Amino acid sequence: MKLSAKACRPFFDAVDEKSREMGVAVTVAVVGPEGHLIALERMDGAGFITPDTAIAKAYTVAAFRSMSPRFPDGRVIQQWFKERNPQLMANASVFTNGKIAASGGSHPVFDGNEMIGAYAVSGATSGQDEEIAEYARNKVGWAKTAADDSVADGVKKHINDIYAKVGLDDRKL
After folding, report:
1. CB atoms < 10 A from the CB of 87, how many?
2. Which long-range contacts (C-beta less than 8 Å, at least 24 apart) are formed by 68-71?
3. Residues 106, 58: contact at Cβ < 8 Å?
4. If we measure between CA atoms, which residue out of 74, 21, 75, 73 comes closest to residue 43?
């Protein structure tokens, strides 16, 4: 399967539904596995910077998830850099012309074992972006992990420790 703008419509509709229910206006972006924009939608009332932020968050997940299963979502990427080299994230943002930003509400999309893209929601709090994105992902049935679990136990422990540090104790890899 390849993600297309048309394939994104049900996801965008689910984002719109949940964000309206929560009383927030957001932007949602979907990129291909190489980080190129496939589709973008900004709700009326969403901040003018939210399209750039959503694109950057989705791009970041695509870039880092392509590098390693150690980076399953924006929250893990953000915490990983905070603990190791916060300047590198800022530098990466500069040398990619602002395309690097890590936060909640951003995940890869898998078809079987192939990462076919990534998505991000931006405009509410990081936690609300995450809640909206998870609602939409579950509603349309997009997988955020590969079908075959090939992640080493040590990496899983590391990621689960990061989830606990950022207050997502209920999430496990």
Report:
1. 8
2. 69/146, 69/150, 69/151, 69/155, 70/155, 70/158, 70/159
3. yes
4. 21
Copy the structure tokens of residue 84: 């190791």
Which tokens sit at 5?
């703008």
The tens digit of pLDDT for each residue in 131-158 reads 999 999 999 999 998 888 777 788 778 7
Report the predicted TM-score, pTM, of the whole model to 2 decimal places.
0.85
pLDDT digit string, tens, across residues 9-33: 999 999 999 999 999 999 999 999 9
- Phi and psi at 123, nearest 5°, equal 140, -20
- What distance lies between CA 166 and its chain's CA centroid? 16
Detail the DSSP E strand segments found in 26-152.
27-31, 37-42, 106-111, 114-122
